[in-house]
Amino acid sequence: MTDGTRSGRTTSARGRRPGPTETREAILAAAREMFADKGYDGTSLRAIARAAGVDPALVHHFFGTKEGVFVEAMRFPVDPSVLLPQLLALPRERLGETIVRTFLRIWGDADRRAPLLAMLRSAMTNERAAAMMREFVSSALLGRAGAATGVPHLNIQAAVGQMIGVMILRYVLRVEPMASASEDELVELVAPTLQRYLG
């Protein structure tokens, strides 16, 4: 008689262990459901593992951190644990320019833009989706950036808010001349304001 698990992995009805791809997808499916139901802050790696029927070590093996699971499960186009250290390694006076170019690179890619737009639309019409995004952005992005730089959270939020507005005008509403402006034109226009926020 088996309880359906061996060495922390689920087994099929015939006793065959699922392969790495099946296990990974089971974890992602469980994570999506838990993030939607409990929010980002209310979901733990251990809870995701329990819902997926796997050992927590497997979740850590595949995704590293809760942020890593969220990025994969929700198709978030950037991993904060990778991006933030890259930004923070730059000279402080280059932050404004680099952030503008980073936003343009991410939003300019249709495949990476699609999940962002889906999340924004969900957050505008569904309070659970809004809470999940708010918790993730506050904890994994803005909170970490503020702690690492000493920049007040309001300043960071103002910088991010300005960039989201620019991206929506450029890529969603396609308002001219914003939609057809070159990257260098937008950097020259917007980067000094961001730099003032982030100083």
UniProtKB/TrEMBL annotation:
Q: Where is the HTH tetR-type domain?
A: 21-81
Where is the stretch described as Disordered? Answer: 1-23
- Which Pfam family name is an example for this entry? TetR_C_16
- Which keywords appear in this protein's UniProt record, sorted alphabetically? DNA-binding
DNA-binding region as annotated in the record: 44-63
Q: Where is the composition biased (Low complexity)?
A: 1-21
Name under which the protein is recorded: TetR family transcriptional regulator
- Species source reads Actinomadura napierensis
